[in-house]
Specification:
Blueprint (H helix, E strand, L loop, with lengths): L1 H27 L2 H20 L6 H6 L3 H9 L9 H17 L3 H14 L4 H17 L3 H14 L4 H17 L3 H13 L5 H14 L5
Helix pairs in contact: 1-2, 5-6, 6-7, 7-8, 8-9, 9-10
Length: 216
């Protein structure tokens, strides 16, 4: 695995070196001995621009090193050359990092690009729409927030934790609209997901203190 990650990290330079060696062998001998060098060099260079180094981000994300993940993303100079589903993931990750840095304008711009390109799986699209909904909540645009979160629930979400988060956001939106019966219904759905994420569990506890006193 480490070897593969190193290959991804340096494949552009390895490809360029192989092409240079191919030119030398072609000049000093003939084309056919140089052909394997040309072929491997072109494949590596093509892979660098078409697939990008996004696989390297996984290790940083798992360890919580957002700075390292951002450096990998910033190393992609020509995102428009990426394969379309990978390009969508690229913009989604940029949006996630921008949100963590409280750059809501940059997050919205990147995440919209990711959604416009289409996600490789419906659950991933749902998760991106949920994040857009949360972003709209941060911007206090409740109408757009509701639209995105409802769309996320229709598309489907990858796990119960995300479902619970979506239902809690809808619960909050319904409270703001004074639609208390709907708010209670979304709250029950959030609890039924039985989330374990501390932040979500804490939100449920906080809402539970006063939701029973609401009319409806």
């Amino acid at each position: 695995m480490k070897f593969y990650n190193l290959l991804i990290k340096y494949r552009l330079w390895i490809g360029l070196v192989l092409l240079a060696l191919g030119i030398y062998v072609n000049y000093s001998a003939s084309f056919w001995p140089a052909f394997p060098l040309y072929l491997v060099g072109v494949i590596l260079i093509f892979g660098h621009f078409f697939f990008g180094p996004l696989r390297l981000i996984q290790e940083y994300m798992e360890s919580g090193d957002m700075e390292g993940a951002e450096k990998v993303l910033n190393s992609i100079r020509f995102p428009n050359l990426l394969y379309k589903p990978i390009r969508s993931v690229y913009y989604t990750l940029k949006g996630n990092i921008a949100m963590m840095k409280q750059d809501f304008t940059g997050a919205e711009k990147s995440m919209k690009k990711g959604l416009d390109l289409g996600m490789p799986m419906k659950e991933a699209e749902g998760a991106s729409m949920l994040q857009m909904g949360m972003l709209m909540m941060q911007k206090n645009d409740l109408k757009q927030a509701e639209s995105y979160i409802r769309a996320a629930l229709r598309k489907g979400l990858p796990d119960k934790e995300n479902e619970a988060a979506a239902y809690l956001q809808m619960c909050s939106i319904m409270m703001n609209k004074r639609e208390f019966r709907a708010s209670k219904d979304f709250f029950r759905k959030a609890k039924a997901c039985k989330p374990t994420t501390p932040q979500i569990v804490d939100q449920i506890k906080q809402i539970e203190k006063y939701i029973s006193r609401m009319p409806g």
